[in-house]
Amino acid sequence: MISRESPTGWYRNRYLWAVVILLTVSAVAVVLRQSAGARVQPADLEGQLMVRMRTTLERVDPGQHNHAGHDAQQAAGEGAEKPPVICGVRVYGYEPATAGTLADVRTVYGFHLCGVAERKCPWDVAVKLAGPLIMDMSTDPPGIQVVEATAEVRFVDRLRQMFPPQYAEPALKEALAPQEMTDLRRRYAAAAGI
Questions:
Q1: What angle do CA 194, 191, 147 make, to 5 degrees?
Q2: Ramachandran region of residue 69, left (φ > 0), alpha (ψ -120 to 50) or beta?
Q3: pLDDT tens for residues 21-42?
Q4: Predicted confidence (pLDDT) per residue in 49-70, tens digit
Q5: How many Cα atoms are found within 13 Å in the side-chain-facing hemisphere of 44?
Q6: Strand runs labelled E in 46-185
């Protein structure tokens, strides 16, 4: 039998095990922190659609967002390098609703809020493009159609014309999720050098 006062046996090894466990926990924490900071492809379909929407909107010229009456690049001037566009998105739904993979999705109904990240320009005064949109995933790059009012049709009526009812109702009530808005503001500040 091993005495508790004895530095041999189980009691001596327990300190070794404590050190091993502490080092293992520390290593796992470092790996998790590093992976949380890295952009990884989401496993879920909605997350993949958000990445695709965001990437598409950030790569195309703001004029291709098809917002009537917006010249988002006017402040850049002739011959100047165009500032990056930083976007946040929300997916309300997609069709076919039974799609299991990104390749199966033909149409995405969602919302976008994009800011043109001019150098040292704060978010609050940045040129912004926002609103519900439909993204045609059957083309490359995906087609973008935003919901806007016309002289004849109010915004709410136009939204209901363009969106299926199950996606139109959330589009009337919800914009970006809080975490997406936080991420958008952080990425915008980095792009604008603020």
A1: 115
A2: left
A3: 444 444 444 333 444 443 444 5
A4: 999 999 999 998 766 555 544 4
A5: 4
A6: 85-95, 107-116, 128-136, 143-146
